[in-house]
Design a protein that fits this description.
Elements (H helix, E strand, L loop, with lengths): L1 H25 L29 H5 L14 H20 L4 H22 L4 H17 L7 H20 L5 H14 L1 H24 L12 H26 L1
C-alpha cells in the first residue's frame, strides 16, 4: 500500500516541480504565473501540452525547443525530479503526521528559491511574504517543543546573518537574512543553527569543487540560497539524527 502512495507522491511532486519552475522564473520578473501560458523564452512560441509534460518532454525533445531548437535549461527537469524525490522522502520520513505539512511547505519554498536564486540571484520578497503567514500558522497550530523555540530561532538566525552581512560586506544578501529568519521560525533555534553551519560547509565544498573543475572562477558571483535550501532540507529530514551523533561524539 505504501508503495502506491509513494508513487502517487512522486507523480504529484514532479507536477508541482514544473509549477515551481514557472513560479521561480516568473516571480522575480513580476510576471503572472497563473494566467499566461508557458512559452519558449528564446522564440516566444507558446508551448502546447506535449511540450510541457514534466521530465518526459525534456527527454523526448532532448532538452531543446520543438520550434526553434534553442536549448532549455537542465534546471527544468532537475527541479521536477528533485521535487518528486523530496515529496516521496517527506512521506517516507513523516508518514501521515502533521510534520508532513511542514515538510511540504519547506520543499515547495525551497524549490522555488532554488530556481529563482540560480537563474536571477534573487530570493523574491513576495515569495517570503507569501510563506511567512503559512509558516506562522503552521507553527501556531503545531508548535515546536518548547513553543518559544520558533521565536528564538527566527531572531537568532536573523541577527546572525545580519552580523555576517555587516562583517563580510556581501557574502550573503538581505534575501538570505529574511529566509534564515523564516527557517528559524519553522525549525527552531537549534535546527536553524545546524542549517547555518551545514550551509557554510556545503557552500565551501561545492565552491572548491566548482573552482577546481574551472566551472567558475574567483570572481563569479555564486548565490547562497541553494546551499541554505540543501542544508534546511537535510536538517528537516535528518536534523535530530545529526544532532544525536554530535552529542555522542562530544561526550
Ligand atoms: Zn523556441
Amino acid at each position: 500500500m505504501d508503495v502506491y502512495i509513494a508513487i502517487i507522491m512522486f507523480m504529484f511532486g514532479i507536477i508541482f516541480g514544473s509549477f515551481f519552475n514557472v513560479v521561480g522564473r516568473r516571480m522575480p520578473q513580476g510576471e503572472s504565473f497563473s494566467t499566461s501560458r508557458s512559452y519558449c523564452s528564446s522564440c516566444s512560441q507558446t508551448l502546447n501540452g506535449w511540450d510541457m509534460i514534466p521530465v518526459l518532454s525534456y527527454l523526448t525533445l532532448r532538452g531543446r525547443c520543438r520550434y526553434c531548437k534553442a536549448k532549455f535549461s537542465f534546471l527544468y527537469p532537475l527541479t521536477e525530479l528533485l521535487t518528486g524525490l523530496l515529496f516521496v522522502s517527506s512521506f517516507l520520513v513523516y508518514g501521515w503526521s502533521y510534520e508532513l505539512i511542514g515538510a511540504l511547505i519547506l520543499v515547495s519554498l525551497g524549490m522555488i528559491i532554488l530556481v529563482s536564486d540560480l537563474v536571477y540571484m534573487i530570493i523574491p520578497d513576495h515569495l517570503l511574504l507569501f510563506y511567512l503567514p503559512l509558516v506562522i500558522l503552521f507553527r501556531t497550530v503545531y508548535p515546536l517543543e518548547p513553543w518559544y523555540s520558533s521565536i528564538i530561532g527566527a531572531l537568532t538566525a536573523f541577527l546572525l546573518i545580519f552580523i555576517i552581512i555587516f562583517i563580510t560586506q556581501g557574502g550573503m544578501g538581505s534575501g538570505d537574512m529574511k529566509l534564515f529568519g523564516l527557517l528559524g521560525f519553522l525549525l527552531g533555534w537549534q535546527q536553524v543553527l545546524l542549517v547555518f553551519f551545514l550551509s557554510i560547509l556545503i557552500g565551501a565544498v561545492i565552491s572548491i569543487l566548482l573552482l577546481s573543475l574551472r566551472i567558475i572562477d574567483r570572481k563569479t558571483p555564486v548565490p547562497f540560497g541553494p546551499y541554505i535550501i540543501i542544508a534546511a532540507l537535510i536538517s528537516y529530514f535528518a536534523g535530530s539524527d545529526i544532532m544525536g551523533w554530535y552529542v555522542l561524539l562530544v561526550w
